[in-house]
Amino acid sequence: MVAESPVEPSLLAQLLEVSPTRVEELCAELEAAYRDEDRGFELVRVAGGYRFQSHADLAPYVERFLLEGQTARLSAAALETLAIVAYKQPVSRAQIAQIRGVNADGVLRTLQAKGFVAEVGRDPGPGQAVLYGTTTFLLERLGLDRIDQLPPLAQFVPGPEIMDALEHSLRANRADPAPAGAPDPNGSGQVGDAEIPPR
What we know:
Layout: H1 9-16, H2 20-36, E1 41-46, E2 49-54, H3 59-67, H4 76-88, E3 91-92, H5 93-100, H6 105-113, E4 117-122, E5 130-134, H7 136-142, H8 160-170, E6 190-191, E7 194-195
Antiparallel strand pairs: 1-2, 3-5, 4-5, 6-7
Helix pairs in contact: 1-2, 4-6
C-alpha cells in the first residue's frame, strides 16, 4: 500500500523472508479472496510486480474524481506514435516517421515527458540512431504485466477478403470499355471512338 509502483515478487520475498514462489502463492490467494469477497479494491500483477488498485467496476467513479477539470488526453498523433513504439520497439525516430509518413519528433517528446516512452539504446548501424521503447509506467497505466500482453495487431486489421474487395473497388476494371473521350489505356492512339491524328 505504501509502494509508488508495483512491487516485484523477489523484493517481497526478501522482505517477508520467504521464497518468490511462496510470494506468488500468497498473492494468488489474496487476489482470489478479494475477488470472492467482492471488495472495492483488488491485488493485481502489472509491470512485473504486484499492486493494490481500485476494482475495475469502480473505474468510472475514480476517473471522475481524478480527471475533474483535466483535459490531458493524448492526441491521435500521439496515440499512433505510441502504438508504433509499443508494437515495433526498439524503434528509431526515422522508422516511426517512415511508418506514419510525418515527422514524429514533437510527438515523441510529448510521450517522453508523460513517461510512456524512453530511450532504450542505440542502433548499431550508421549514425547510431537513438532507439525508443515503452516504459513500465505505460504497463501500469494499461494494466499489463508484460508488453507482449498487448492484443495482437491481426484483430485490428481487415481480413484478406475485405482487402481484396477494397482493392477491386478502387482499381479500374481493364475489361470495361473506355467511355467516349477517355484516353485508351493501351496507348493505341485513340480517345474513345475518335482517332488522334498522327503528328
